[in-house]
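Support request from a user on the community tier.

User writes: "When I paste my structure tokens into the form, the page sometimes reloads and wipes my input. The last time it worked, I copied everything first. Here is what I submitted, just in case something in the input itself triggers the reload:"
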């Protein structure tokens, strides 16, 4: 093999640091905000089962592929794709798959920062006791007062984006790794405290039954597609985040084992979030199927009426901020690495330019909830459009292309060398999943999402 490339951005201090950072990237709003309510809406246990199958058949194989490409290319996702394709004697145009991933991360962070800003606002609302004894109408009003005020949203989004930029400026080890080392354990500790609290409500059994008792009647073809799409988003696949973090992975790391550990951590935290939230919801006689408002509208009602609710409320939203923040830095890093490599900027310049541009795009999302609520295209406001474009089109397309490239275009010698441990049975299983199962599953979701087929 040719001499190994080095990343000019440094690398993780150990394989554990990588697993921690990538788990931080994966665990985010998707786990704590989205997973519980979509599981709630789609039949609980039956949905969870399908979701687990998607993580295993599609999530882990594609994550393995992305880390391998990143580690072999050692550059931003676009350049890594190009280098790995060249090393395999393939077209340089595979560059565009990486570029698509960077574009996705750019768009996602523009709205992700705004939603993370809501969580930050709620930390203070909880702290100031605004939920105490509040009626559902009052909680609704608090939420409306937040999203209808563009200045407030801009303020919180600016804090999130400013914080994200300030961490990424310090680079891989001193910035990304150091913040995750603190935030991930803090997030996990808070989650466990809330789960213990939930056990104490006396409604833990209800939560368990709700989440794990499979109700196959509630499972529609559409919920299978939701499970599949969410498996993608929750593992941060096809956004360049994981491929970028893979570029900083030490040589001695086993890629499939790391992918397994990250996916397991992500899944465990999504399930724990459900076990933290539903008992509290049931103990307060509230509805579990509230949809996207479950966290910002239903839960505060519970916090306002339960023992130590003010304290638990602060902790809960702080946990959400930590979870979102470790994902946000992973969304900024690919653009920053690209600007450094392509435009020869310093890390400071690249972080500010990249983060600043995302912040600017985020104004579109900010205005979707107030002055721009009527600015629509295809019936979708700006935020919905960005969400639809990334989650339903760019991510599945990116994932499909990564799977096809790795299974059908990547030189076998390279993929065997990067796939470690060199168990040939495991390798063959992985290759089969990537070559046949993942593309087939993604094509089905994709065609359904754009309305070509209707399941
Ligand atoms: N995986 C994150 C979540 O579940 O909230 C969202 C995300 C982060 C998606 C980073 C993509 C990404 F690159």
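"...and here is what came back when it finally went through:"
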């Amino acid at each position: 093999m040719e001499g190994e490339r080095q990343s000019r951005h440094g690398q993780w201090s150990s394989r554990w640091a990588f697993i921690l950072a990538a788990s931080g990237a994966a665990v985010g709003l998707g786990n704590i905000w989205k997973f519980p309510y979509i599981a709630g809406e789609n039949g609980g246990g039956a949905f969870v089962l399908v979701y687990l199958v998607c993580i295993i058949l599609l999530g882990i194989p594609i994550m393995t592929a992305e880390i391998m490409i990143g580690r072999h290319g050692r550059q931003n996702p676009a350049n890594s794709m190009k280098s790995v394709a060249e090393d395999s004697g393939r077209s340089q145009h595979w560059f565009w798959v990486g570029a698509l991933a960077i574009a996705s991360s750019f768009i996602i962070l523009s709205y992700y920062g705004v939603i993370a800003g809501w969580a930050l606002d709620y930390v203070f609302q909880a702290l100031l006791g605004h939920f105490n004894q509040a009626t559902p109408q009052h909680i609704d009003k608090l939420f409306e007062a937040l999203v209808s005020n563009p200045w407030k949203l801009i303020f919180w989004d600016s804090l999130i984006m400013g914080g994200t930029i300030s961490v990424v400026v310090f680079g891989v080890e001193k910035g990304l790794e150091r913040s995750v080392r603190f935030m991930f354990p803090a997030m996990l500790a808070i989650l466990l405290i809330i789960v213990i609290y939930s056990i104490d409500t006396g409604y833990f059994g209800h939560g368990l039954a709700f989440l794990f008792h499979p109700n196959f009647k509630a499972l529609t073809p559409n919920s299978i597609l939701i499970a599949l799409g969410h498996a993608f988003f929750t593992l941060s696949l096809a956004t360049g985040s994981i491929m970028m973090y893979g570029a900083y992975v030490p040589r001695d790391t086993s890629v499939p084992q790391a992918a397994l550990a990250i996916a397991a951590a992500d899944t465990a935290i999504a399930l724990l979030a459900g076990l933290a939230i539903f008992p509290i919801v049931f103990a307060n006689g509230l509805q579990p199927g509230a949809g996207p408002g479950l966290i910002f509208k239903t839960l505060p009602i519970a916090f306002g009426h339960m023992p130590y609710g003010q304290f638990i409320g602060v902790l809960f939203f702080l946990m959400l901020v930590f979870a979102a923040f470790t994902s946000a830095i992973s969304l900024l890093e690919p653009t920053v690495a690209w600007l450094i490599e392509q435009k020869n900027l310093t890390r400071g310049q690249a972080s500010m330019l990249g983060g600043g541009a995302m912040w600017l795009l985020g104004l579109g999302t900010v205005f979707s909830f107030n002055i721009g609520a009527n600015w629509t295209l295809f019936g979708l406001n700006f935020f919905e459009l960005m969400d639809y474009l990334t989650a339903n089109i760019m991510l599945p397309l990116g994932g499909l292309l990564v799977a096809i490239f790795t299974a059908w275009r990547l030189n076998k010698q390279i993929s065997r060398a990067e796939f470690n441990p060199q168990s040939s049975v495991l390798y063959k299983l992985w290759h089969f999943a990537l070559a046949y199962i993942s593309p087939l599953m993604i094509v089905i979701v994709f065609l359904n999402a754009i309305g070509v087929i209707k399941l």
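Agent notes: The reload is a front-end session timeout and is unrelated to the input. The pocket of 4-fluoro-L-phenylalanine is lined by residues 25-26, 28-31, 105, 108, 233-234, 236, 239, 241, 327, 330-331 (CB under 6 Å). The mean pLDDT is 92. Escalated to web team.
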